[in-house]
């Protein structure tokens, strides 16, 4: 080969070119990625020069449309006759309404809570316009516990959202003010209410349409005649792919129009978007061409360097430098660490919000450093392969060579066989010499040797016995037990240390299993909480549909089914959360004095309707005096609720239910018994396990958590929970210590 191919100057020049190409490649890839990821430029815009015709303008128009519709919805909610109205009634839930100004002040002050029985409900700091006084109605028995809880939750949710909505309203009103924005909009609802930032003489939609179209860039949609008109590129195609882009936030038969002044006289977000577009658009062609050129240049330079590295003119020998003499594994580990550091730096680079110029500078620096490190390691590996030192200069090779040299036949059986042969040979030699020469000295030496061998064998057996005892301890569950292996020798030391490590591993596995159980419990809790919010909305909307007094019987039946199933799902969600809290120990009890007599009567009253539906007759035997225990009010109510629910679901229709509360010595004893509608072919202790139901066919509603929750809550509060089965007779008995 020609000499110039191996010249040092040529190699240095190629390295410089390769580095330069790497920096160009990364910088322009970052530029292209940044522009396309921000939707600032699209491929179809490469041959275009106008901002108004670009995909970037279309994207900006789409996002502005969504924001303007959000503003219109907030104006509907907060305005009267086009003005912000603090006295306007805002619906919280059902027929419950408060004035807008009161809600805003209430949100700033925060919620106060009032004890209502065993519940803690949001106190009505400000008077309601309609449907107020829900706490008093709950205490008077006009609404149920669930209804009171739902109203309290709805008020809490409104407190969280109202301030944000008002701030958004004020920000958007100011942003789309006619004197500050290039955007004009017009919206007319079915009842004739108009929301616009245009100055109209007559206020009709034709006048508004003419003014919006005169701006230059517009969108018009009339839901009454389903007419869509726009001159924005690709917007009509996008509309027909996803009509909810416009109609999702509109009333039926409403009119929505929005336009952008093509001259952009105001310095709003469209004006700034145009400046960015004009500044960055010319770079897309340059970036694409430079990217392809830099890829080709980088690969070509790498191929050339791979060919000439380690070679000198007129020599066939491969020359290694000091870096190539470092052990291969050390170089590989160092390379992995550098790659990890590069990934961390790249991750941090992505986690920050950068201006494009700053991003390109940081990317160029990382590309220069990263490519230099890559060349250092890559070319070293190529030279090692050519010189045949990639394996020979490794730590593994050195270790294997040592093992082969000094530890051939190093298995335990091999070592035992060698030891046995050597010991047997010594014994035979001493015995033969003693016999042949009739010298007591050889016999004495033989006796001493046998004693020494016996001591070693005894020591080995003692160590083995200690190992067996350690295994028994670990097997019995004492995973923290450790064999004292400091004085052990040979295989016994290796075995004892292995068993100790095995115990540590088992302990870690048990800890990991417990951690997984906690993670499962947390997952159930989190998922249940995530389900709760949309489920509350579903229940509220079903209630709203119920209040509409729809005359269609089939629709009313559907609404009734929705209400039943959503209530069941809500109960299941609450059961899952409660069971998860109990199993993970994440539950705090507030122990207070509870009159069980009143609580049982109250619970029975709550379930009268359910029992009547199943034609169940309840017989209650209660003392005249109070029976007071220490318990958490909400949790003990949950225990009784689950027991009564269990009876309502699984008792045989047309039978009697017996409830009894009495004192026995220093304990309060509550029992409830009924005849089961299904055969109880299951042990009583299994009925209190999670997800176990007496109805094996699962034809009735239930989660299999009720009795489990009841038992665990009773135990946590210091009581006992027992189930007694006698044929089809099902009886639950719970006891609590009396509070004196």
Strand order of the largest sheet: 8-7-11-9-10
Q: What's the rounded overall pLDDT mean? A: 79
Q: Report the major sheet.
A: 5 strands, antiparallel
**Uncertain runs:** 690-700
What does this entry show, briefly?
By secondary structure, the chain is of the alpha+beta class. 58% of the residues lie in helices and 13% in strands.
Molecular structure report:
With 740 residues, this protein is an alpha+beta fold. The chain folds into four domains: 3-39 and 281-395, no CATH class; 61-270, no CATH class; 500-587, Helix Hairpins, CATH 1.10.287.130; 589-737, Histidine kinase-like ATPase, C-terminal domain (Heat Shock Protein 90). Helices cover 58% and strands 13% of the residues. The chain contains 21 helices and 18 strands. It has helices at residues 8-37, 55-78, 100-109, 134-139, 145-175, 205-214, 235-241, 244-247, 269-280, 283-308, 328-351, 356-387, 395-406, 412-437, 440-475, 490-547, 553-584, 596-606, 608-613, 633-650, 706-716, and strands spanning 79-80, 83-84, 89-93, 96-99, 113-116, 119-122, 183-188, 194-196, 216-222, 227-230, 255-261, 591-595, 617-621, 628-632, 656-664, 667-675, 720-726, 729-737. Strands 8-7-11-9-10 form a five-stranded antiparallel β-sheet, sandwiched between helices. It has a five-stranded mixed β-sheet with strand order 13-15-16-18-17. Strands 1-2 form a two-stranded antiparallel sheet. Strand 15 (656-664) and strand 16 (667-675) form a beta hairpin. Helix 3 crosses helix 5, helix 18 packs across helix 20 and helix 20 packs antiparallel against helix 21 (706-716). The longest helix is centred in the C-terminal third of the chain and has 58 residues, at 490-547. The N and C termini lie far apart (106 Å).
């Amino acid at each position: 080969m020609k000499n110039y191919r191996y010249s040092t100057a040529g190699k240095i020049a190629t390295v410089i070119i390769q580095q330069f190409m790497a920096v160009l490649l990364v910088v322009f890839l970052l530029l292209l990625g940044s522009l396309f990821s921000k939707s600032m430029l699209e491929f179809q815009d490469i041959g275009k020069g106008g901002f108004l015709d670009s995909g970037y303008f279309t994207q900006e128009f789409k996002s502005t449309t969504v924001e303007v519709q959000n503003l219109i919805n907030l104006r509907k909610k907060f305005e009267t006759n086009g003005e912000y109205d603090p006295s306007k009634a805002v619906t919280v839930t059902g027929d419950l309404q408060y004035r807008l100004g009161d809600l805003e002040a209430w949100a700033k002050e925060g919620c106060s809570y009032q004890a209502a029985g065993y519940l803690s409900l949001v106190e009505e700091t400000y008077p309601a316009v309609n449907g107020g006084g829900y706490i008093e109605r709950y205490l008077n028995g006009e609404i149920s516990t669930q209804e009171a809880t739902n109203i309290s939750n709805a008020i809490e949710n409104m407190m969280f959202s109202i301030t944000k909505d008002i701030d958004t309203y004020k920000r958007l009103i100011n942003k789309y003010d006619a004197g500050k924005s290039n955007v004009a909009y017009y919206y007319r609802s079915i009842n004739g209410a108009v929301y616009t930032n245009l100055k109209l003489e007559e206020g009709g939609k034709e006048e508004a349409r003419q003014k919006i179209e005169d701006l230059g860039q517009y969108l018009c949609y009339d839901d009454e005649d389903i007419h869509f008109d726009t001159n924005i590129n690709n917007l009509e195609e996008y509309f027909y792919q996803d009509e909810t882009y416009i109609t999702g936030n509109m009333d039926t038969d409403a009119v929505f129009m929005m336009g952008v002044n093509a001259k952009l006289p105001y310095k709003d977000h469209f004006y700034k978007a145009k400046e960015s577009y004009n500044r960055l658009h010319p770079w897309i062609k340059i970036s694409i061409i430079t990217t392809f050129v830099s890829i080709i240049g980088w690969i070509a330079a790498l191929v050339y360097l791979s060919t000439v590295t380690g070679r000198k003119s007129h020599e066939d020998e491969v020359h290694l430098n000091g870096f190539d003499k470092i052990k291969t594994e050390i170089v590989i580990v160092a390379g992995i660490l550098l790659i990890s550091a590069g990934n961390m730096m790249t991750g941090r680079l992505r986690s920050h919000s950068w201006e494009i110029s700053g991003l390109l500078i940081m990317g160029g620096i990382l590309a220069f450093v990263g490519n230099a490190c890559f060349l250092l390691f890559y070319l070293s590996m190529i030279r090692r392969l050519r010189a045949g030192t990639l394996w020979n200069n490794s730590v593994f090779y050195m270790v294997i060579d040592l093992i082969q040299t000094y530890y051939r036949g190093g298995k335990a059986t091999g070592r035992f066989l060698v030891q046995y042969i050597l010991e047997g040979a010594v014994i035979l030699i001493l015995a033969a010499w003693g016999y042949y020469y009739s010298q007591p000295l050889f016999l004495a030496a033989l006796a001493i040797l046998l004693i020494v061998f016996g001591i070693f064998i005894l020591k080995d057996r003692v160590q083995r016995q200690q190992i067996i005892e350690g295994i028994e301890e670990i097997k019995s569950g004492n995973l923290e037990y450790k064999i004292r292996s400091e004085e052990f020798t040979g295989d016994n030391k290796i075995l004892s240390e292995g068993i100790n490590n095995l115990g540590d591993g088992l302990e870690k596995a048990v800890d990991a299993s417990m951690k997984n159980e906690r993670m499962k419990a947390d997952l159930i809790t989190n998922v249940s909480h995530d389900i709760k919010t949309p489920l509350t909305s579903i229940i509220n909307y079903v209630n709203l549909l119920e209040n509409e007094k729809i005359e269609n019987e089939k629709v009313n039946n559907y609404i009734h089914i929705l209400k039943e199933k959503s209530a069941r799902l809500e109960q299941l969600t609450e059961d899952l959360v409660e069971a998860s809290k109990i199993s993970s120990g994440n539950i705090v009890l507030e122990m207070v004095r509870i009159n069980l007599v009143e609580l049982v009567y109250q619970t029975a009253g709550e379930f009268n309707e359910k029992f009547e539906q199943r034609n169940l007759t309840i017989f209650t035997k209660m003392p005249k005096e109070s029976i007071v225990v220490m318990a958490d009010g909400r949790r003990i109510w949950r225990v009784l609720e689950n027991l009564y629910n269990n009876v309502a679901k699984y008792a045989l229709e047309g039978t009697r239910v017996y409830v009894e509360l009495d004192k026995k010595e220093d304990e309060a004893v509550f029992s409830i018994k009924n005849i089961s509608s299904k055969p109880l072919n299951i042990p009583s202790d299994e009925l209190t396990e999670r997800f176990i139901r007496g109805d094996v066919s699962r034809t009735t509603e239930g989660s299999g958590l009720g009795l489990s929750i009841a038992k665990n809550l009773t135990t946590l509060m210091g009581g006992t929970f027992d189930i007694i089965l006698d044929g089809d007779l099902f009886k639950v008995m719970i006891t609590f210590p009396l509070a004196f």
